[in-house]
Amino acid sequence: MTSKTNKYLEIDRSEFLSIFEEISKIGWSEIYGMNRLALDENDIKARHMLIKRLKEINSLIRIDDAGNIMGVLEGDTKEIIATGSHLDAVPGGGRFDGTVGVVGALYALRYIVKNKIKTRHSIMAIDFTNEEGSRFQPSKMGSGLTTGVYDKEYIYSRKDAKGITFGEALKLSGFMGDQNNRLMYSPIKSYVELHIEQGPILEAEGYEIGIPHGIVGMVYLEVNFIGEQAHAGTTPIRYRSDALVPAGILIKEIRDYIKSLDDSLRITVGKIDIWPNIHNVIPGIAKLIIDIRSFYNKILSDAIKYIIDISNLIAKKEGNIEVEVKKLWESPRVVFDKKLRDLIINTCQELRLKCKEDIYSWAGHDAQNMSRITKTAMIFIPSHKGKSHTKEEYTSEKDLINGMKLLLNTMLVLDLS
């Protein structure tokens, strides 16, 4: 929105889609999907393309010691309005996750320059390093280091499947930047992240935009059932202590527990390891990794207690089975800034886009870490059939344009506030 005229801006559809196509196709295969892990050959190529496009508009390029790329258009003040996302992808993923937000940030800067819009604030576009955590764990490492969530020694020591540390990969990539460029040291007024929903709700309910309340809390539990390894042929049922049996019972109990509630809780048993995992041996150990998510702290804590209690009860009923439960990882929920959300919602309504306000992000994002240092919010656009982290991931051109239009206008409304 331009100052004084109260008219909302229309973007150049063909230019935006052309830039998106240019960057999103790097590392893309119609057969495999996306092959662009953090700081690999394709990620480096995409990053250089981003920097090339940022330099075309004479934006100031900053890189911090996490390799995060920041393009800045200086305004009348040093206070920054920031937007961005990530270019790295999961193996075999799609072209939209993360890339939409980075291209959106790049295009916003290009639009401001091409249309000679004078801004009060400095405007920043960001590409965060290793958001997915597919090559180096944990996820959101770039935003985590730059906002002070993780320390440098920890981040640099993380290794990929080949034993290469993040610090080594960063140095080899040429994106080893300056610690002084960390965002925690910058005067950032607000951060808005454009992203695909990665779920089916917006499309199924006929919404063009979603403005999430925040990001759900997440907990990973490890449940170990310990029985007795024995011969599959010679051991009668009455003498068995099969560790896999209580694991199967637990999975069914968890499913029934979720079904008894509304859609405020998600629990997934996504990984099972059994020992020795041989067809003719009764399993002596069954280990389950359980992903638990909710926006509501009490629902989350109740679910954790339920899993611990039911695991112990199952083990007791089975007899001669021990169980151990431990928390592997926890990420507290994030509540986005209400005033910033209201501003985005109002802008969405002014643009006559159908907006869903009662929605949450069930996936983690860099906005999670950015909320620690500034006012933060997100803009969701529909994912066709809710598919993400797969090569079938798709968001229509119309929805891409709607999201970009809302992001651009939101940033310029913020500039006036």
Mean pLDDT: 96
With strands numbered from the N-terminus, the spatial order across the biggest sheet is: 3-4-6-5-7-18
Strand % is: 15-25%
CATH topology of the largest domain: Aminopeptidase
Helix-strand topology string: HEEHEEEHEHHHEHEEEEHEEEHEEHEHEH
CATH superfamily of the largest domain: Zn peptidases
List the quaternary state of the chains: single chain
Proportion of residues in helical segments: 25-40%
Count of separate DSSP helical elements: 12
Rg from alpha-carbon coordinates: 24 Å
Q: What would your notes on this structure say?
A:
It is a single chain. By secondary structure, the protein is an alpha/beta fold. It folds into 2 domains: 13-215 and 333-416, Zn peptidases (Aminopeptidase); 217-331, Alpha-Beta Plaits. It is built from 12 helices and 18 strands. The strands form 6 sheets. A 6-stranded mixed sheet has the order 3-4-6-5-7-18. It has a 4-stranded antiparallel sheet with strand order 12-14-10-15, covered by helices on one side. A two-stranded antiparallel sheet has the order 1-2. A hairpin with a 5-residue loop joins strand 3 (60-63) and strand 4. The protein is elongated, with a radius of gyration of 24 Å.
Which features would summarize this protein structure in a list?
alpha/beta, Alpha-Beta Plaits, 417 residues, 12 helices, 2 domains, 6-stranded mixed sheet
SSE arrangement:
Blueprint: H1 13-24, E1 28-29, E2 33-34, H2 41-56, E3 60-63, E4 69-73, E5 80-86, H3 99-114, E6 122-128, H4 141-146, H5 152-157, H6 166-173, E7 188-196, H7 201-205, E8 209-210, E9 214-215, E10 217-226, E11 230-231, H8 244-259, E12 266-275, E13 281-282, E14 285-294, H9 297-318, E15 322-331, E16 334-335, H10 338-350, E17 355-356, H11 366-370, E18 375-381, H12 397-416
Parallel strand pairs: 5-6, 5-7, 7-18, 8-17
Antiparallel strand pairs: 1-2, 3-4, 4-6, 9-16, 10-14, 10-15, 11-13, 12-14
Helix pairs in contact: 1-3, 3-12, 8-9, 10-12
